[in-house]
Amino acid sequence: MAELRRGRQTPTQSVVIPYSDTKGPDAIKLYKKTGNELLEWQQLIACDIMAVNKEGLWVHQKYGYSVPRRNGKSENVLSRCLWGLKNKERILYTAHRATTSHAVWERLSRMCGKADIHISSSFKAFGKEHLYTSDGGVIEFRTRTSNGGLGEGYDLLIIDEAQEYTEAQETSLKYVVSDSKNPQTIMLGTPPTVVSAGTVFVKYRETVLSGRGFDSGWAEWSVSEQHRPDDVEAWYETNPSLGTILTERKIRAEITTDDIDFNIQRLGLWLRYNQKSEISKAEWEALAVKAMPELKGKLFVGIKYGHDGENVAMSVAVKTKEGKIFVESIDCRPTRAGNRWILENLAAMDYKTVVIDGANGQQLLADQMKEIGLKNPVLPTVKQIIVANSSFEQGLFQNNIRHNNQPSLVRAVSNCEKRAIGTNGGFGYRSIKEGVEIALMESVILAYWQCAESKEKKKQRSSY
After folding, report:
1. Taking the domains of the chain in order of start, what are their residue ranges?
2. Whether pTM exceeds 0.85
3. At 418, phi and psi to the nearest 5?
4. Which neighbouring-strand residues pair with 255?
5. Rounded to 10 degrees, what is the CA torsion of 334, 338, 341, 345?
6. Backbone phi, psi, residue 217, to 5°
7. Are 93 and 177 in contact (CB under 8 A)?
8. What mean pLDDT, rounded, does the chain reach?
9. How far is CA 74 from CA 79, 129, 188, 367, 384, in A?
């Protein structure tokens, strides 16, 4: 009988510091006591993670790995946790979602009994789970926040769902292992999608693969460029558990019209535009004017309520005598301050069109405008938002935009990346830097779009 085909068992890319000894086999044996067995690729990762030097210290103080979904990437940290509890380590297991950390707590609780690890205390309150052994081993489970773990000390820090790990969270969590005599941090996840919030995982990968990591290791299963979803060879190259716990049939069922999402989550594609701003500071500043240009026609106003509901931004666009479009931000204020400032600005403007986007505020503002006698605004559809973003991008590359180098707008534009909208290649923008309000840029885009779409009325000529 022919042997079933298996996915690639070695990483497509990895950085491993040379070592001659590892605690990996001990963890693998302990895991086997639970009635399970690590696959070949999982054993390889376990040995690399648990490599030790002559002093018995971890060779990789930090280790990260990325594997497409449903391949069993968490089994490596479960075996590592079992070994840690057996050897009296203090462990902090963090995840982006409370359901993830709770599921790991449940699984590890059952595994400890089978592996002869005596649990003296088990606490299952959602978000505060823990397991204490009678020998002094500790593992606590937390959902990540910007201040989680402060004031506590651990030997091992695990960052699950690392694609969502933010710089604010890292600022507090990276110090929780500082007091340990033999600290280690493990990050595991998948490449970030266009809606992922984290940036730490991306930067760590880039640092280690470029040879600038310190006591750090990395492994990934990935494609280097986008593939067709039906490319079966790519499936086997990037899914090490294909042919064992994962089947071709299951993967075929995942194929939809969203090719990019399939490439990220099933083929491990790392999108290049997640690593730097879509628009550079130099590109934007090249469009700045030294003196105010001569303007013509009425203003076009863009108003954007931020995705998180915290701020609302207002900008204007107007055509210039030279045929370009000049854009300027009016203000960006907290939504809790109300809409009065927006209404007062609109009442004082000679504008042609106002476009408002943001489900958390657009209808209320539209109703308020009607009450005070202002003309009805445009409330754009998703399709129109996609057109607006494309129009702005074309205006940027065709040198059709002018601005006066407002610092807040420069900061927003030069710290943005694309995000997917819809399933047909549409895109929007989001900030890649915490504290930068992308709504400011989005309000400019709305104003620019309406200005670019407007047609000048030509005077009718009659001849006899």
Report:
1. 13-274, 281-453
2. no
3. -80, 150
4. none
5. 110
6. -130, 160
7. no
8. 90
9. 9, 18, 8, 51, 42
Handedness of CA 279, 280, 282, 288 (dihedral sign): positive
DSSP bridge partners of 300: 317, 353
Tokens of 372: 């005070």
Nearest alpha carbon to residue 398 among 324, 300, 319: 324
Q: Which residue has the tokens 């280097």?
A: 224
Cβ–Cβ < 8 Å for 38, 82: no
Topology (CATH) of 281-453: Nucleotidyltransferase; domain 5 (3.30.420)
**What does the block give as tokens for 248?**
């071709």
Residue 431 is which amino acid?
Answer: S
Tokens of 354: 């106002």
Per the DSSP assignment, residues forming a β-bridge with 62 are: 185, 216
pLDDT in tens, 2-14: 568 999 999 999 9
Handedness of CA 194, 198, 203, 204 (dihedral sign): negative
Residues 29-70 have pLDDT tens digits of 999 999 999 999 999 999 999 999 999 999 999 999 999 999
Cβ proximity of 306 and 358 under 8 Å: yes
CATH superfamily of 13-274: P-loop containing nucleotide triphosphate hydrolases (3.40.50.300)
